[in-house]
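Revision sheet: structure tokens.
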Amino acid sequence: MFRVVIAGVLLAASFPPINLWFLAPISIALFYSQLMRAIFKLRLQICALYGLFFFAPLLHWSSTFVGALPWLILTVGETLFFLGLAIFSWDSKITHYFRFAALWVLLEFAREKLPFGGFGWGRVGFSQLPSPLSFYLPIFGITGLTFLTVIFAAVFTKKELRTKSFIFLVATTMIGFGTEYLIDHKVAQKSENSKLNITLIQGGVAQANLNFNNIPMEVFKRHLATTNKYLASKSYAINPADLIIWPENASDLDPITTPEIARDITALGGEFTGDILIGAVLNGEDGPQNAAILYKDNGNIEQYIKRDLAPFGEYIPLRTIAERISPLAKEITDFIPGSNSALFSTENGVFTPLICFELLDDTFATQTNLKSNFLVSITNNATFGKSSEAAQQFLIARVRAYESRKEAAIVSTTGYTGFIDSKGRVMVQAAQFDQSATSREISLNNYQTPISKNRNFPELLVTAIFLLTFYRRKRG
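Predicted:
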């Protein structure tokens, strides 16, 4: 069982803070080798141990400021999905390799959607941006990249197939490289030959913890001061921004119904000739709402309400039970989700903002890509302190940029804040926890990657592969 523990830890180490992508296939190969020819009871133990030692270090950030109990519950809950891999016996057969990879992907899909809207953190594809197989991200998305990674790892467990599988891996990589070249050409064709100057405001908080917004308007004033400092700077005078973006919860009080905040934003609009996107908490009729509000230079106001709320963070499912388990649940007021998408336009830029963990969900990410010519994600990482949560989330944003082949602007209250190019490379990044204004001119393009246009295709293909592994030709 020691090898299983090591395998689980290696998979966690493929994500930040260690962030060594090649540890994922090594981990999966080691895991599969332990499952081979094991009886059902042993397979259950192996899968449980592997899941626990993967998710426990990966999700340790969830214990920040709230103690070990939520972290342990989340770890166990996510580990339960790994038990699905114990249902079948595994051997060194080609059909078994395909079945294993397909089932792994389907279980990741289930984690992304279930329960309470799901939590797709730790999908293997999110760790594989530097992998030679990442060329397939714009084609098959996270699902396809995970499938390829898992199946190659499983096949490498059979000595007789290692040479052939390595040759096939090289060939697959070369095909991916050729596809990348064709996509580069299409991106260039769809490029609007236009740019957009964006400034990201990381205003920070007085103290990064659960009570970061204890003092009314304190978070807002920090972002306002950082913005005013930028507007008075030489960089703004020389090359003014077309769009300023504040992070999620930057306005800790409703900016529409709070007169002082409304006046400050109006005054800010008088100094700035572009548009301002502000993450804010709104006082909805039925409860608070997590919003992104676009203040246009012509005085119009548009808004998007977050639809994919984080369970146990923005609302409490099974509240009666949750409050018995943890008294902290009583302190959380249920947010009300939005029901509609939004398409914002600014100068020649068109975008739909993603708020915080909406970045995790393939459906929301695709809806964002379809009509946008660049990506925007606003988030608040203050409640996770100096943990690795922010780094892991920023990595997911990089993967989304490459998947959609669009440049991205990511802004957080405390970091990570920065600009990502259309291949997932970090172009500019602000120092974490600093109050800063980070500016860049980004390129816009209307290209739709195959995965953006055919979101459900990879899951359908993998399901078909999984079912085909049970097909047996009749003899005679």
